[in-house]
Design goal:
Strand order of the largest sheet: 1-2-3
Order of helices and strands: EHEHEH
Number of domains: 1
Distance between the termini: 25 Å
Strand content: 15-25%
Oligomer: single chain
Number of strands: 3
Length: 72
């Protein structure tokens, strides 16, 4: 699978399935916006920084239409 040239927005991306999906998408070449209501821990921030332009962390609460609009 190759996701080169694709952009993905993943919710719940600070841990669990959302994090695993985000990491796989990046590994497959996608640029990924990792969103979560939780603050990312230091190891996730370091991983995202190491990915350069391919991983971007953003706070977003999916219950807030205003935050969704801001993110998109």
């Amino acid at each position: 699978m190759t996701l080169a040239g694709k952009l993905a927005l993943v919710t719940g991306a600070c841990r669990g399935i959302g994090l695993a999906i985000s990491q796989r998408f990046v590994a497959e070449g996608a640029r990924v916006v990792l969103t979560d209501v939780a603050e990312p821990d230091a190891s996730l921030r370091a991983w995202a920084a190491a990915q350069g332009e391919r991983a971007h962390l953003m706070r977003m609460d999916v219950r807030s239409e205003a935050e969704i609009q801001r993110t998109v």
